[in-house]
């Protein structure tokens, strides 16, 4: 299972292009551009499993650093600052990692400031 079986390659390219410059990554814009924002809960779960490289059930900071490369192998590595802000966007319990439920909960609460997707 790869991300391109869930998201279109064109949408991924577009999303990656928008955040090519270091420190320009905006997760909301990215998830919208790559099409993840409009995916079903089941599809988001599959994406989550792909991003959770070590199958720990959580996406940790180290995995977020290589987040863009999961979408395309030649994409850049996120800066520490970007990886941290990506986590804090959905990390409601401040344990420094994101669980699948957190990813989904933050997705549905669109009025929440911490909305992830
Ligand atoms: Ca993990």
TrEMBL record:
Annotated SUPFAM superfamilies: EF-hand (SSF47473)
Residue intervals of the EF-hand domain: 39-74
Domain of life the protein comes from: Eukaryota
Keywords for this protein: Calcium, Metal-binding, Muscle protein, Repeat
Classification via Gene3D superfamilies: EF-hand
Repeat among keywords: yes
Residue spans crossing the bilayer: none
Recorded GO MF terms: calcium ion binding
Gene Ontology CC terms: cytoplasm
Binding residue positions for Ca(2+) 1: 52, 54, 56, 58, 63
Protein residues bound to Ca(2+) 2: 91, 93, 95, 97
Purpose of the protein: In muscle, parvalbumin is thought to be involved in relaxation after contraction. It binds two calcium ions.
Family per record: Belongs to the parvalbumin family.
Name under which the protein is recorded: Parvalbumin
